[in-house]
């Protein structure tokens, strides 16, 4: 997927007709399974359970990937699925085809053996998640709401077993996501009189905007550690942490996101000719918003120089924090499954930075974890 309106439709059709329906015939032909296409390319399955009074859950994954170019340093062509030294190389092998294939393969396996679950469940495979899911996930939500469906929990891609990521943590830990950061894409722009490089102004549009960007990168968003779900993460991990202070986390790229809203300058556009002072410059900045902060609070902190125009391109507040106590069915069943497969691990709640489009009107609880263990979860329930 390139943009919300520019997706590879021919590849999506081939993935459906030439791959999924041939590799997983049972899930498409079983009289037990209800299947429909949503938004032309997203897949929605319902597998009814033997006890219809039990609230259903949903397994989510997405079909699309972000663009990739072999010139970016790939060891194998990014769409070749080439196997090297026991690993499959390809865009989407981690984000998020492993979930798509894991869910469908587990379901196919169980259907072939005549299995019927006690609790009904849904499978949602979005086709445009990488560009905000407006035609895939959003339409799945609308459909479920129109049918009066209320989900017990949703299992989506996200956190995993982490080893060596958190500084000072003794051994690996499994983090199960209970929320997601908010997100904002903000455009900063400067307009000024054009000029020539032989008679340059004191400050150019590029210079003014570069200073604004430098201020953003130099002045990090406020430290909010302890005001979101990360507090519970480290309470669960405390017995395994050799050294832990907030300043240690924020100095490391991998863990700075625990502490605050992150700021990433991603696109800078200006100029048309090497000897012309451009009249306009723009930059796009992506923020991943901490659970204790709002989108509006981030926008207020971005404003500084009156010559720099600040525009919100798109964004949303952090998601509500799902329950993870002993009565939280979704969290506890995933925790139990992880511990049965990796008994040496400590399991803790966490949060992710990925965008997600299932709202709280449809879903009681969001559980975010790698779904290559789905078969065990389906059999247990």
UniProtKB/TrEMBL annotation:
Concerning InterPro entries, the annotation shows: Bact_exopeptidase_dim_dom, Pept_M20A, Peptidase_M20, Peptidase_M20_dimer
Show where the Peptidase M20 dimerisation domain sits: 178-303
Q: Which residues form the signal peptide?
A: none
Reactions the enzyme catalyzes: N-(4Z,7Z,10Z,13Z,16Z,19Z-docosahexaenoyl)-L-phenylalanine + H2O = (4Z,7Z,10Z,13Z,16Z,19Z)-docosahexaenoate + L-phenylalanine; N-(9Z-octadecenoyl)-L-methionine + H2O = (9Z)-octadecenoate + L-methionine; (5Z,8Z,11Z,14Z)-eicosatetraenoate + L-phenylalanine = N-(5Z,8Z,11Z,14Z-eicosatetraenoyl)-L-phenylalanine + H2O; N-(9Z-octadecenoyl)-L-tryptophan + H2O = L-tryptophan + (9Z)-octadecenoate
Annotated GO biological process: amide biosynthetic process; amide catabolic process; amino acid metabolic process; proteolysis
Pathway given in the UniProt record? Amino-acid metabolism; Lipid metabolism; fatty acid metabolism
Cite the GO molecular-function annotations of the record. Answer: aminoacylase activity; metal ion binding; peptidase activity
Keywords of this protein's UniProt record, alphabetized? Hydrolase, Metal-binding, Protease, Zinc
Give the family from UniProt.
Answer: Belongs to the peptidase M20A family.
Function, in words:
Secreted enzyme that regulates the endogenous N-fatty acyl amino acid (NAAs) tissue and circulating levels by functioning as a bidirectional NAA synthase/hydrolase. It condenses free fatty acids and free amino acids to generate NAAs and bidirectionally catalyzes the reverse hydrolysis reaction. Some of these NAAs stimulate oxidative metabolism via mitochondrial uncoupling, increasing energy expenditure in a UPC1-independent manner. Thereby, this secreted protein may indirectly regulate whole body energy expenditure.
Q: What is this protein called?
A: Peptidase M20 dimerisation domain-containing protein
């Amino acid at each position: 997927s390139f943009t919300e309106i520019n997706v590879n439709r021919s590849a999506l059709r081939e993935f459906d007709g030439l791959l999924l329906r041939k590799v997983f015939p049972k899930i498409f032909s079983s009289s037990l399974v209800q299947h429909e296409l949503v938004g032309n390319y997203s897949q929605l399955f319902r597998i009814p359970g033997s006890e219809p009074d039990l609230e259903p859950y949903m397994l989510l994954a997405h079909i699309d990937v972000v663009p990739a170019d072999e010139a970016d340093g790939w060891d194998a062509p990014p769409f070749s699925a080439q196997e090297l030294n026991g690993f499959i190389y390809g865009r989407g092998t981690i984000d998020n085809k492993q979930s798509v294939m894991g869910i469908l393969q587990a379901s196919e396996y169980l259907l072939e053996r005549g299995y019927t679950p006690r609790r009904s469940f849904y499978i949602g495979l979005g086709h445009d998640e990488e560009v905000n899911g407006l035609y895939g996930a959003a339409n799945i939500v609308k459909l479920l709401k129109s049918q009066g469906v209320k989900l017990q929990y949703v299992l989506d891609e996200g956190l995993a077993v982490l080893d060596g990521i958190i500084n000072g943590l003794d051994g690996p830990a499994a983090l199960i996501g209970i929320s997601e950061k908010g997100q904002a894409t903000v455009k900063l722009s400067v307009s000024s009189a054009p000029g020539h490089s032989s008679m340059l102004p004191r400050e150019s549009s590029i210079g003014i905007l570069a200073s604004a960007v430098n201020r953003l990168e130099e002045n990090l968003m406020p430290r909010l550690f302890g005001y979101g779900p990360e507090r519970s993460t480290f309470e669960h991990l405390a017995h395994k942490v050799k050294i832990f202070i907030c300043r240690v986390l924020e100095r490391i790229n991998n863990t700075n996101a625990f502490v605050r809203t992150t700021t990433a300058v991603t696109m800078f556009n200006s100029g048309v000719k090497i000897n012309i002072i451009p009249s306009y410059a723009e930059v796009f900045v992506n923020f991943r918003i901490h659970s204790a902060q709002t989108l509006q609070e981030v926008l207020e902190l971005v404003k500084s120089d009156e010559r720099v125009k600040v525009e919100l391109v798109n964004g949303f507040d952090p998601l509500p924090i799902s329950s993870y106590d002993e009565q939280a069915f979704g969290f506890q069943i995933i925790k139990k499954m992880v511990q049965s497969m990796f008994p040496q691990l400590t399991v803790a709640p966490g949060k992710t930075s990925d965008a997600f489009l299932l709202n709280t009107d449809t879903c009681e609880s969001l559980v975010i974890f790698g779904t290559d263990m789905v078969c065990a979860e389906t059999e247990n329930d």
